Amino acid sequence: MRPFETKGSLLSTGVVLLAAASTVAAQNATCDLPSTYSWTSSGVLSQPKSGWVSLKDFTSTMHQGKILVYASNVAGSTYGSMNFGLFSNWSDMGTASQTGTPFAAVAPTLFYFAPKEVWVLCYQWGPTSFTYRTAKDPTNV
After folding, report:
1. In the sheet where 109-113 sits, what is the strand order?
2. What is the pLDDT of residue 100?
3. Helix (H) or strand (E) holding 11
4. Is residue 14 assigned to a domain?
5. Closest residue by Cα to residue 118 from 139, 140, 135
6. What pTM was computed for the model?
7. pLDDT tens readout for residues 16-50
């Protein structure tokens, strides 16, 4: 059998799928982008607690009607992770408690996996390039 020679209609099916995909792409490519952008900022939402030099890589979700935030932190030259105590408004983040986690979850991402009714905290640190933890309570992942 030579390359691209088929006994059935595999090649023709592939051509039809490519044609359909290009049609969809062409239909979606007509969206005009704005020529200017503008936004406002609240300024600094929080400062690292004493002993930490930075906070970054924030992930947030709503839990029991309040905002829950996990983030990476740096203390000296050591990367770690932390979470803020629950707060109601973003303007309250600066006064929320900051607690280091007993594990280094650098660049965390928190989400709820509904099929198993579990919270998952994924991060890029540990013995493998991708690590995760699960819990029923997102404040204690």
Report:
1. 109-113, 118-123, 131-135
2. 95
3. helix 10-28
4. no
5. 135
6. 0.71
7. 445 555 555 555 567 888 899 898 888 899 999 99
pLDDT per position as a tens digit, 105-121: 899 999 999 999 999 99
Look at the chain and report how many structural domains it folds into: 1
Position 82 in a domain: yes
Return the DSSP state at 140: G
Q: Which residues contact 135 (CB under 8 A, 6 or more apart)?
A: 118, 119, 121, 141
CA 131/CA 125 separation, integer angstroms:
7
Could you tell me if residue 73 is inside a domain? yes
Tell me the CA distances in angstroms from 5 to 13, 70, 101, one per residue in order.
Answer: 13, 54, 58
Residue 106 lies in a domain: yes
Distance between CA 131 and CA 104 in Å, rounded? 10
Q: What is the pLDDT of residues 58-82, one digit of tens each?
A: 999 999 999 999 999 999 889 999 9
Domain that holds residue 126: 54-140
Contact between 106 and 123 under an 8 Å Cβ cutoff? The reply is yes
| Average of per-residue pLDDT values in the chain | 83
How many beta carbons lie within 10 A of that of residue 110, not counting itself? 21
CA–CA distance, 24 with 15 (Å, rounded to integer) = 14
Q: In whole angstroms, what separates CA 112 from the centre of its chain?
A: 12
